Amino acid sequence: MGLGAWSNPGLLLGLFPTQCTIHCSPATRAGFRDCCSGLFRHDAPVETCFTEERSMHYVDLTLPTPAENLAWEDALLQQADSGQFRHECLRLWDARQVFVVLGRSSRARQEVHLETVDRQGIPLLRRITGGATIVAAPGCMFYAVTLSLEKRPELRMLDQAHRFVMERIRQAVGRLGIAARVDGNCDLVVGERKTSGNSLRIQRNWLLYHGTLLLDMDLSWPDRLLAHPPREPAYRRGRAHCDFLANLGVSRHALADALCHAWQAEPLAENAWPQLDLEPLIAVRYGSHAWNRSR
User: Fold this and answer.
1) Alpha carbons 31 and 246: distance in angstroms, whole number
2) Which of 7, 152, 165, 250 suits 37 as a labelling partner, its CA being 20 to 30 A distant?
3) How far, in Å, CA of 162 to CA of 199, rounded?
4) Number of helices (H) and strands (E), helices first, in the chain?
5) What pLDDT, on a 0 to 100 scale, did the predictor assign at position 167?
6) How far apart are CA 168 and CA 184, in angstroms?
7) So what's the pLDDT on residue 241?
8) Residue 171: how many CB atoms within 10 A of its CB?
9) Alpha-carbon distance 195 to 184, whole Å?
10) First to last CA, the chain
C-alpha cells in the first residue's frame, strides 16, 4: 500500500472490518484515536501518525577523578530535566583507582571501615541515588542512562523503571554468552553471585539509572574496606563480600558494544557532548566532606 492511502479516509476505513476489535491498552487506544482523528482531516500532515523516534546517544567518557565522574552524571540529569539537553544518553566510564561510594542514605560509620579508608587515603564519596555502599577498583566499569519520563511515563513507577533498565543490562551480557538473572530488586546475578549493583534517581521529567559492572576487579577490596551491609537480599544468605561477588570475565570492549546494542545507542560526536559545569557540584557535594560524610 502506498503512502497515498493515508490521505484517503475511505480506503483507510476499508482496511478494517466494521466489527473488528483492536486489543491494546487504553493509552494505545487513545493514541490511535488521536492519530486517526488527525488523518481524517483533509489538511492533516502525514507526520501526524508517526511517533517521535527514541534515539539514544552514547558517550564513553572517564574523567580524572571519581568526584568528577559522579558529578558529570548529576549535572547531566539536571541539564536534561531543565530542558537544556533533551537526548537520552548512555554513558560508560571506568574506575582507575580504588574508591568507596556511599548510597544517598548510607551511614558511613556503619557501612565503611573508616580508619582503613582514611589511613590508605582512599576517596570516600556519596552519590545522589539510593542503595548500599560499594567499592570500585580497576576492572570495574560504570554505566549510566538518562531517560525521559515524558517519552516513557511508565518509568515513574519504580518497579517498572528497575525492570526496564535491568532487562536491557541482562540482554547485553546475554549477548556475550552469560546467563544472568535479576535478583534482589536490581542486582544482576550470575549463578548465585552478584556482578552488578544499580540504583536510580527520579527528577520531575527525567530519570538517572546507573550501576557497576564487574569485569575483572580485585574482589578482595570490599571485605577490606566495608562492613557487612545492614540490609541484604535473601539470595546473599549472609555471605562475605568475596563469596558474594563475581566478575563477568569479559572484555571491556565487548561489553560496551553489547550495551550499545541493547540500548540502540549511537556514538555522540565529542564536539556535541553536553557542556556541563561540574565545579559547583564538586564544591557542594562530591568534593565536600560535609556531603560525603553527612551520615
Assistant:
1) 45
2) 152
3) 8
4) 11, 12
5) 97
6) 17
7) 98
8) 15
9) 12
10) 64
Q: Which residues contact 101 (CB under 8 A, 6 or more apart)?
A: 66, 70, 125, 126, 127, 133, 134, 135, 136
**Which residues make Cβ contacts (< 8 Å) with residue 14, sequence separation at least 6?**
none
CA gap 31, 25 in Å, rounded: 10
222, three cell numbers: 570490599
The ranges assigned to domains in the chain are 3-49, 56-292
Q: What is the pLDDT of residue 43?
A: 37
Q: Cβ(86)–Cβ(118) under 8 Å?
A: no
* 162 sits in which H/E element: helix 158-174
Grid cell locating 207: 530519570
Q: Residue 290: phi, psi to the nearest 5?
A: -65, -40
Instruction: State the maximum Cα–Cα separation within the chain, in Å, rounded to a whole number.
Output: 79
* Residue 185 exposed, middle or buried by CB count within 10 Å (0-12, 13-18, 19+): middle
Amino acid in the structure at residue 279: E
Q: Which of 135, 141, 171, 170 is nearest to 244 (CA)?
A: 135
What's the pTM value of the predicted model, to 2 decimals? 0.81
Series of mean pLDDT values for 10-residue runs along the chain (295 residues): 35 32 37 36 31 73 98 97 94 98 96 98 98 97 98 96 98 98 95 97 97 98 97 96 98 98 94 92 97 93
Residues in the chain: 295
C-alpha cell at 66: 571519581
Secondary-structure class of domain 56-292 per CATH? alpha beta
Measured over the CA atoms of residue 106, residue 109, residue 110 and residue 116, the dihedral's sign is positive
Q: Are the C-beta atoms of residues 134 and 213 closer than 8 Å to each other?
A: no
